[in-house]
Design goal:
Blueprint lengths: L20 E5 L3 H13 L3 E5 L2 H11 L3 E5 L7 H10 L7 E6 L4 H10 L3 E4 L4 H20 L9 H13 L5 E8 L1 H8 L1 H22 L5 E6 L2 E6 L4 H15 L6 H6 L1 E5 L5 E5 L2 E8 L8 H15 L6 E4 L5
Parallel strand pairs: 1-2, 1-3, 3-4, 4-5, 11-12
Antiparallel strand pairs: 6-8, 6-11, 7-8, 9-10
Helix pairs in contact: 2-3, 7-8, 8-9
Length: 326
Amino acid sequence: MSDGDGNPQVALDASGKRAQSILVVDDDPIIARLLEIELISAGYEVGLASSGEQALEVAQAKRPDLILLDVLMPGMDGFEVARRLRSDPRTLPVSIIMLTATGLSANRLEGLNAGADDYIVKPFDTPELLARVKGVLRRAREVRSQSPLTGLPGYVRIEEEIERRIAAKADFAVLYADLDNFKAFNEFYGFDRGDEVLRHTAQMLKEIAEDSAGSEAFIGHVGGDDFVLVTTIDLGPPVADLIIEKFDSAAPGFYLEEDRERGFIEVENRRGDMQRYPIVSVSIGIASSERRDFTHYAEVVAVAAEMKEFTKRTPGSVWAADRRTN
């Protein structure tokens, strides 16, 4: 049950451990209250938000394990909330189940592209809802410790590694790599082919790390098309150069010959218009301890993610390193 400000009430599961937390986001107070009652009865810690803006505030402050997110809300809709959650390093690991009154395939696809882990159409029965919640949370636990797709360490291990280096006052550089135009590639060629690209990228990063930094390097798969490589300060830029060189060399081979020669694919955008998407590339943001004294892994990831977003303003594969002081 929430405390009136959207904050989850602390609950314990049957073993006495802290219960997993769920944030219910719905502008209909009756539906929100019913969901709250059912989830608390199932042993979850529950918070409420009645708008997209409030959902982002609570999610950033409390970081629930899962968000049940209504699509149709006044102001900021559920799709935009999901996109913002996925673009913020603080909320990137949070699982999302979208709730909607329409089962149109286009809406389901948009929800999944926005970052949702699952999609439930209203009205739904309680056993189905609880089964979906349990399944998404179980998969999230597995992914956070290790990515089942790439075999790389997941978000939890990435956090532990960065925290370890901060505590040891070691010098380090964190490279946050993101594949550009990958969602369009997935939609055009299908998820199986997209998974091949992610596995290839993971293997490439492992080989680069081993060859250039050996035991000093750490590779993790945040999720989706986001990867993290941790190395020493001096190796950050040359490793970023090597990643770009090898990825750009391999990227055209992911496409069929006619698309490769044309240099782009065409995919329908949110407005229903056909849009051209170039060959996939990689954007890399680098945060290091060279000029900053970090105290928490979230600070490091936030800076690296900020630099990564900066590189996305430039077409093609690019890296940028943070040179600011504290």
